[in-house]
Amino acid sequence: MHPLHLLAYFVGGAMLMNALPHVLAGAMGRKFPSPFAKPPGKGLSSTLVNMLWGFGNLIVAYLLVCQVGRFDPRDAAQAASLALGMLLLGLGHAWHFGGLNGGAGPDLA
């Protein structure tokens, strides 16, 4: 397997994790921060913007995971690469959005 395939699966995992809060917020009818808000990543975007942004992330995740190489979830290296991308971006989301929403943000409070 080519090492760039593992990188694609890692980034695909990150894109999949990034899609989740945006799609879920949009589907629940809740505003949520997005790169298009003012200020970016801190202000709230509409449900429509979040749904479109999240769906775009899902498309990119699909392309990176399902169209690059032959992703096999039973292959430990491939699954670990995808999971690590999801975990690291998920931790980043928890850190960033926890700080905005009163959770454990950058100050670890």
Short description:
This protein has helices at 3-28, 47-66, 76-101; strands spanning 32-33, 44-45. The protein has three helices and two strands.
Helix and strand arrangement:
Layout: H1 3-28, E1 32-33, E2 44-45, H2 47-66, H3 76-101
Antiparallel strand pairs: 1-2
Helix pairs in contact: 1-2, 1-3
Structural account:
The chain is mainly α and 109 residues long. The chain has one domain. 66% of the residues lie in helices and 4% in strands. The protein is built from three helices and two strands; from the N terminus they run αββαα. The protein has helices spanning 3-28, 47-66, 76-101, and strands at 32-33, 44-45. It has a two-stranded antiparallel sheet with strand order 1-2. It starts with a helix and ends in an 8-residue tail after the last helix.
Q: Which terms summarize this structure?
A:
109 residues, mainly alpha, 3 helices, 2 strands, elongated
Into how many domains do the coordinates divide? 1
Overall mean pLDDT score? 91
How far is the first residue's CA from the last residue's CA?
A: 43 Å
Fraction of residues in β-strands = under 5%
Strand arrangement across the biggest beta sheet = 1-2
- Number of continuous helical runs: 3
Radius of gyration: 15 Å
Could you tell me the number of beta strands? Answer: 2
Helix content: 55-70%
Write down the overall geometry. elongated
Low-confidence runs? none
Series of H and E elements: HEEHH
**Structural class based on helices, strands and sheet pairing:** mainly alpha
The largest sheet, given as strand count, sense and whether it forms a barrel, is: 2 strands, antiparallel
